[in-house]
Design goal:
The chain has 64 residues and is an all-beta fold. It has a domain of 43 residues. It is built from no helices and three strands. It has a three-stranded antiparallel beta sheet with strand order 1-2-3, with no helix packed on it. It is elongated and about 60 Å long. The N and C termini lie far apart (57 Å). 3% of the residues are buried.
């Protein structure tokens, strides 16, 4: 069963270690998450992040 909690990103919620082993970025709807495991206590979990609009970057102004 998944258990959701708020904790400090980059820190194991079980033992407090900052030595986490991260997997790749995953996208789900309007959120992204990183799977991670803790080598100290062997916890496996995910850190979730909200996606929100930040800015627009023009990469080619085209021909007028």
């Amino acid at each position: 069963m998944d258990k959701e909690m708020r904790c400090t990103p980059g820190t194991c919620p079980k033992c407090g270690s900052e030595e986490l082993d991260y997997g790749c970025l995953n996208v789900q709807d309007a959120m992204v998450y990183y799977s991670f495991s803790c080598p100290v206590c062997r916890l496996e979990a995910r850190e979730w992040y909200d996606l929100s609009y930040a800015s627009t970057t023009i990469t080619d102004e085209g021909v007028v």
